[in-house]
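Hi there,

I know you've been waiting on this one. I reran it after we fixed the sequence typo, so this is the corrected version. Both the input and the resulting structure follow.
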Amino acid sequence: MNGNKLGKIIVGLRKSKGFTQKQLADELHVSDKSLSNWERGYSLPTIETVYLFSKYFEVNFQDLMKARLEDDKDGNLVQGVIDEFNNMGNKKAKKLKKFLFGALIIIAILIVGLFFVFNYNRYVVYKVGFENSEFSSLYGTYVETNQKDTLYLNNVRLKNIEIKNTDTVSVDVYILDGSEEKLINTFSILDNIQIDNFESYVEFDDLSNYFDKLYLRLTIIDKNNKVQEYTTKLEFVKDFSNSKIYIKDKIEVAKVINKTPEEIKKILLKNEFDNNGNIISKTLKNGYINYNVNANKFSIYYEDKNLSYRYNYLLSANRIEILVYDKNNLEIENYNYDVENDKVIECVTGKCNNYKEVLKLFDKEVLYLLK
């Protein structure tokens, strides 16, 4: 390895949670030896693992991948040419300098070209959801690479149905081909479910070929051997692909939301929001999020590190009102952001530049449900 940029990032993320290597390894279901090697730069995690880091710590996936790629390239040959080029100071070496400079350019082009050939569109990430009103939540990710395809499912829960400690549960993921069921795998847990094409009961090279036929069944057996089954079709939405040389870090969320307030209300109620008439609400860790049906507006309020944040997203106007207060309730940020035209308007107080974080927060909490 030639550098340890990603390792240092992982160390910082781990310490921000106050975890030991063993605790973080257990959280991510990897060995603490592998985690130690990644942090010290002795080896690099797989793309799937990098994506898990980004989701767990809520950091930018592209930034982690950029650090991984920088650590993964062998720059010894190029650096040697640069050092020799810099040490030449006499006129007799001009021809050799030109030759080495040309060689350096060719080497750089080859490195970029080989990376592009072997990595272009080689990993694709999908968000996974459900299509059944009986399920209250089901979150997942499908990662497709040229080596392995992996499906991650988490938080499989039912609406208004409590699973007791005495109940036996099983989760089946299967392909429904006509009337024939082809079981991919079965689990006795509701969280941290992982399936890849090397551990499936059914052989497949690319699970995306079965997206329109993929189902999940939750079976509950109580202490009296009463059996209840709940089935939902899995829904896949493409989230990321390295199919471009340059990926602009811009979140476009409101431009694809063309649902009516009643349609939005119905979707939110299917996803753990509480019904309070015209106000649909959900409790956050340090605050809450509301949807006002009459005003067609989302509002987020939360407190963090002696600051309080109030964000109002007016969907009909594609505008976000952003307000931030200190512990004395003094206004330190006050501005509007125009989502449609991607620009700040009416900057009243503060630097008015954290709208990307605000967009990410809205996208994480609700807007991904409406796309």
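Quick highlight: The chain has a mean pLDDT of 80.

Best,
R. S.
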